[in-house]
């Protein structure tokens, strides 16, 4: 059994109370990374509970009922400070946009999680610079987010999510603000880089083509999981599952291999 696994059992969550109560999750159980790193897409109609599930899995929102365990430890039994430290050390996050600090250059945005974790500025910036180079942003280290394209900013966000070597990365519509070709490139990079780092990825998306790049697709409806299957059965033929053998994708395989070698 793989140690970097996330186990969620019987999660329920309702926003508000009484007449205003909005049930968002109902009896959701899911395990991520049981057999090694994997890329899992969470799909479903608007309001089906995707973002709520992601936030509960990441320990940002506490479930009303049920439990989430990371590496066998129940997040609810941790003190707030411990959970915050765990999120910083073991979890990475990529959101649609706006997560970078606008006043900081790219390299400092990426170095920040390491410095918040107690690392020296020199060491943190060395690691951040190396990662940004590997993501093709070696010329952009001193640019502030407002001086980057949307795709470049998302690559900086990916570097920031990965710099602390997390065990799992959570992404909420990470390409939702990008055009199709930029979004596809960023998504390939996110999947390749995350798996290349030995971490799992959980990504909320509306986009079937994004889901098809993942190895597994979980569908929600009215706060419940209605299907959980390998991406192969949901994938358009032009895309392959990241870890599957079904459809060759030389560019992605090469990218992932580069990452694995660079991460040694
Ligand atoms: N902060 C909140 N307060 C009250 N209700 C909320 C809140 N956040 C979400 N909800 C409700 O919970 C349900 C699930 O919302 P959630 O954002 O998880 O769905 P989603 O599938 O991510 O939707 P979308 O695809 O539109 O982003 C919806 O009915 C939503 O209106």
Question: Features of this protein?
Answer:
binds adenosine-5'-triphosphate; Rossmann fold; disordered C terminus; 8 helices; 4-stranded antiparallel β-sheet
Strand content: 15-25%
Amino- and carboxy-terminal Cα gap: 23 Å
Bound compounds: adenosine-5'-triphosphate
Q: Which class best fits the helix and strand makeup?
A: alpha/beta
| Number of helices, counting only DSSP H or I runs of 4 residues or more | 8
How do the helices and strands follow one another from N- to C-terminus? EEEHEEHEHHHEHEHEEH
CATH architecture: 3-Layer(aba) Sandwich
Overall geometry = globular
CATH class value: Alpha Beta
How are the strands ordered across the major sheet? 6-7-8-3-9-10
Q: Biggest sheet, open or closed, and with what strands and sense? A: 6 strands, mixed
Mean pLDDT: 86
Domain ABC transporter: 6-247
Protein name: ABC transporter ATP-binding protein
GO molecular function, one term: transmembrane transporter activity
GO cellular component, one term: plasma membrane
């Amino acid at each position: 059994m793989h140690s970097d696994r996330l186990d969620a059992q019987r999660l329920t969550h309702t926003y508000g109370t009484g007449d205003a109560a909005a049930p968002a999750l109902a009896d959701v159980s899911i395990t991520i990374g049981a057999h090694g790193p994997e890329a899992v897409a969470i799909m479903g109609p608007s309001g089906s509970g995707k973002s709520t599930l992601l936030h509960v899995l990441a320990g940002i929102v506490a479930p009303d009922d049920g439990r989430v365990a990371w590496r066998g430890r129940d997040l609810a039994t941790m003190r707030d400070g411990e959970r915050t430290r765990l999120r910083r050390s073991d979890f990475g996050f990529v959101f649609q946009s706006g997560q970078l600090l606008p006043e900081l250059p790219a390299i400092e945005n990426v170095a920040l999680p390491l410095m918040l974790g107690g690392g020296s500025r020199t060491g943190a910036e060395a690691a951040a610079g190396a990662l940004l180079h590997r993501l093709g942003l070696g010329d952009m280290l001193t640019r502030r987010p407002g001086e980057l394209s949307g795709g470049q900013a998302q690559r900086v966000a990916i570097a920031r999510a990965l710099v602390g070597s997390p065990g799992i990365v959570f992404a909420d519509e990470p390409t939702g603000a990008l055009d199709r070709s930029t979004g596809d490139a960023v998504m390939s990079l996110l999947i390749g880089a995350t798996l290349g780092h030995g971490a799992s990825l959980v990504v909320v998306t509306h986009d079937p083509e994004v889901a098809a790049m993942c190895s597994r697709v979980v569908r929600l409806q009215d706060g419940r999981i209605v299907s959980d299957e390998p991406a192969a059965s949901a994938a358009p033929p032009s895309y392959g599952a990241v870890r599957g053998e079904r459809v060759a994708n030389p560019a992605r395989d090469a990218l992932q291999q580069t990452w694995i070698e660079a991460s040694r």
